[in-house]
Amino acid sequence: MIKNALVLLLIYFVGIAVYNYSLNETNMPPLSDGDLIFQTTNVPHSFALALASGSLYLHTGIIKQSGSGTVVIHAAQTVVETPLSDWIAQGALKRFSVYRYKGLGREHTSYILEALKPYYGRMYDHYFSFDNHEIYSSELAYLAFKQANIPLGKVEKIGSLTVNNSFVTNLIEQRWQNYPACAGKDYTFDQCYEVMMSQEIITAASIADDPNVELIFTNYPF
Question: Could you give the CA distance from residue 31 to residue 98 in angstroms, rounded to a whole number?
Fold first, then answer.
């Protein structure tokens, strides 16, 4: 899995730099409420997260059609609505993909958008935990669909991801002492690491891999 992720990353971050591939945003079909949009983030730990999940989909949001145009509801520093064009611009090389849940009706999307409202303003969760008030992007999508009684993605243990590499290890070493489940408990690194590996997580990759969603647009070159 590490080899596959490295190949993807090398293609993306090196090959694409010299590959003249059109963004093709003009070919994007009309978007609907509840569509799921994915991108690769430009943050220091992006490489580690891509290796861990085996995917370039590191950030996700939910499409909403508003009076002022198309917006993306997502967990940034806080949960906010961001105009679609601004959301696209913040991703690596403006690459993004849009998926649609099969058979999702208007009554379902209304439930989803309503379920999102209580999360507006919540702070971003850098520790990717279900057990706190903060929230991360794929968790936001997962919980909104769940509250509308629509299963989405696959909850996994962090230890089941590709964590046995130096990039992920370095990220864990930087964060473990402030990790909420370990802080104040006088844990050693090894003890906290074990707690981390047992933590449940929902990744953007698992949402995109859900057999109930289908790709309707991408400008990634593969």
Answer: 8
